[in-house]
Amino acid sequence: MFVGREKELESLNDVYSKERFGMTIIYGRRRVGKSTLITEFIKDKKAIFYTATKVGAERNLELFAKQVMNVLDPVYSEVTFSTIESVLDIITKKISESDEKIILVIDELPYWAEKDEALLSIIQKYIDTQWLDKKLMLILCGSALSFMEKTVLSEKSPVFGRRDAQIKLEAFNYRDAALFVPNYSPEEKAICYGVTGGVAKYLSLIDNRKSLDDNIKRLFFRTDGYLFDETKNLLTQEFSDITLVNNVIEQVASGENALNIIASKVREKDSTVLYSLEKLIDIGLVEKKKCITEEKNKKKTQYVIKDHMFKFWYEFIPRAISVIEMGQGELYYDKAVKPRLHEFMGSVFEEMCRYYTLEQGIKGVLGSFLTETGTWWGVEQLRDEEGKWYQRATDIDVVGISTIDNTAVIGECKFKNERIDKGIYETLISRSRLISGKYNITKYMLFSLSGFTDWFDKADKTNVYLITVDDMYT
Predict the structure, then answer these.
(1) How many whole angstroms separate alpha carbon 153 and alpha carbon 146?
(2) How far apart are CA 104 and CA 50, in angstroms?
(3) Which among 95, 358, 459, 467 is least buried, having the fewest CB atoms inside 10 angstroms?
(4) Inter-residue long-range contacts of 237-243, CB under 8 Å, 24+ positions, other chains counted
(5) Cα separation, 88 vs 128, whole angstroms
(6) CA-CA distance, 389 to 383, in Å (whole number)?
(7) Do 301 and 287 meet the contact criterion of CB atoms below 8 Å apart?
(8) In sequence order, what DSSP letters do the residues of 105-155 get, joined into one string?
């Protein structure tokens, strides 16, 4: 089942519709659906689709040539070629003879280009000297984000300036992820998004005919479940030694978000841990979060797990390995995981609410054109019962700002089986002063799984939005 990606398909078709040569570069983390997107795009078109592997330059050339000849001239599919130029010459000749446009796809480009430093320069030469007036569309695709950004897309790249479009394919947002499970309730759709992170491959494994609990048990809490070993599989593909990086992720997943603390916990130098964190950021598993109103303040940064599936896995699986291997993973889920699902969903729900807020702000629903959303954290001054002042760490779940008119909206999110009451609203109002110096706060937003108490029926809601999970899916 192919779901969503309308904008990406439109972009690809725009390039394809060009009368002459066009190129699109696609990149994104593993399992996010890049190959599926390309397959959907080329399904009714003539295309050469080659996926590079970690077999070295010579073997990739051999396999690429075979794929090219299978499409263009199957009789000669066993012919060997000594250089990539000789293969590209065949492509050039065939497209010159054909009225039909041909698509050339090189997927997982970094596997090949890392072992053949001349590859991109050769492709650049053919673009400039042979293909510009030809009916050819070239798609270069890769999962290694840092390689694609620094080697393929940067100004130093041989192919720089020759692309017509670039697509950084992200995981599905919570709303598009719900298209995979149309029969689920809004609460179940949200949790499904939380445990899969909106990653296309993981969503495709959800059986919409079975309950959410049954799907989670089957995928995570059985030794033959696809996601039981998925974190190790992904890390093994990216790191030669996953022991350190595994320890680093464990610390970040447990809530440690400062470099020096993480390094202390794993007993390694800051520089060593920083290298692992930067690589994890490169492959889309970790992000360096900044306080939205103080983005230039280097002290106000946090390392957090970006991939929700990884966060779920590290939250629940490591401590249950023995139980799962004994065949009792489903019982463990019922006893230890399901009661804590709403707690796990806290940060996921906040991210969903920030997306919703930005979406509504762009549409103009909130009264100002929001340009970005994020979180704020810091300290607030409070008085105790004796009237003495003290400081307490605090945060604001949702902060949407407009750099156009310096307005802001702020929000609080609760994914709990209890309704939001007057106290939570008043706390949000109180915290608004922490960021009101720079931005004029125009709206207050309360997001709730279980609704709101009767107090809100009579309260002045002129500048207040009350949003349920059901509202977020309509």
Answers:
(1) 10
(2) 8
(3) 459
(4) 237/30, 238/279, 238/283, 239/279
(5) 13
(6) 4
(7) no
(8) EEETHHHHHTT-TTHHHHHHHHIIIIITTSSEEEEEEES-HHHIIIIISST
CA–CA separation, 402 and 444 (whole Å): 15
Tokens of 326: 């004994």
Angstrom CA distances, 137 to 14, 190, 308, 340, stand at 11, 38, 35, 49
Q: In what order do the strands lie in the sheet with 440-448?
A: 372-383, 389-402, 407-414, 440-448, 464-468
pTM across the whole model: 0.92
Q: Give me the tens of pLDDT residue by residue for the chain, a chain 474 residues long.
A: 789 999 999 999 999 999 999 999 999 989 999 999 999 999 999 999 999 999 999 999 999 999 999 999 998 888 889 999 999 999 999 999 988 999 999 999 999 999 999 999 999 999 999 999 999 999 999 998 888 999 999 999 999 999 999 999 999 999 999 999 999 999 999 999 999 999 999 999 999 899 999 999 999 999 999 999 999 999 998 888 899 999 999 999 999 999 999 999 999 999 999 999 999 988 889 999 999 988 778 788 999 999 999 999 999 999 999 999 999 999 999 999 999 999 999 999 999 999 999 999 999 889 889 999 999 999 888 888 888 888 888 999 999 999 898 999 999 999 999 999 999 999 999 999 888 678 899 999 999 999 999 999 999 999 999 999 999 999
CA distances from 196 to 142, 172, 219, 296, 413 (A): 21, 10, 10, 32, 20
d(CA 449, CA 348): 13
Which residue's structure tokens are 């930067």? 278
Burial bucket for residue 108 (CB in 10 Å: 0-12, 13-18, 19+):
buried
What is the end-to-end Cα distance of the chain in Å, rounded? Answer: 22
What pairs with residue 239 in β-bridges?
Answer: none
CA 249 – CA 311 distance, rounded (Å): 9
How many Å apart are CA 238 and CA 251, to the nearest integer?
19
Q: 């995979």: which residue's tokens? A: 180
Six-digit token pair at 377?
Answer: 């954290």
The span from the CA of 219 to the CA of 84, in Å, is: 42
Based on its alpha-carbon atoms, the radius of gyration of the chain, rounded to whole angstroms, reads 25
Helices (H), 185-290: 186-196, 200-204, 212-220, 230-238, 242-253, 259-266, 270-282
CA–CA separation, 230 vs 461, rounded Å? 46
Contacts of 33 (CB under 8 A, 6+ apart): 5, 169, 199, 200, 201
